[in-house]
Amino acid sequence: MASDALYIDDRITIAGWELTEQFVLAGGPGGQNVNKVSTAVQLFFNIANSPSLNDRVKTNAIKLAGRRLSKEGVLMIEASRFRSQDRNREDARDRLKELILEAAKPPPPPRKKTRPTKGSVERRLKEKSGRSEVKKMRGRPGGGSGSGE
After folding, report:
1. How far apart are CA 4 and CA 16, in angstroms?
2. Helix (H) / strand (E) containing 95
3. DSSP code of 2?
4. How far apart are alpha carbons 38 and 31 in whole angstroms?
């Protein structure tokens, strides 16, 4: 079942034909409505073969999807939070949008190596020698071999 295009941001828009929706019976509260009406939504999106996403975003999205991704690279988002089909449909599309936005974030800048300051090195060495003195003082008094006379 084709749906409307999903606008992610000014660079990414997923065409309607790439999204497939399936409506299933939801569990949980809702009374007789739950037993009769298919309100839960399963939204399918083939990340691996999508022309809308570049390779970096695809790779990141596949990592973020985790267990929701099939071996063929199809992402399945199930939404049954609400009691109406329309709200669950909107919820599933919002969750797909959040996942893709997270995958599209730029990588963090590389770490710059820094050297410890002269003062911090001196403080560390002073602390070490202080510890050493404390441990030396833990020996038996008199420096004996420990055998009683």
Report:
1. 5
2. helix 85-104
3. -
4. 13
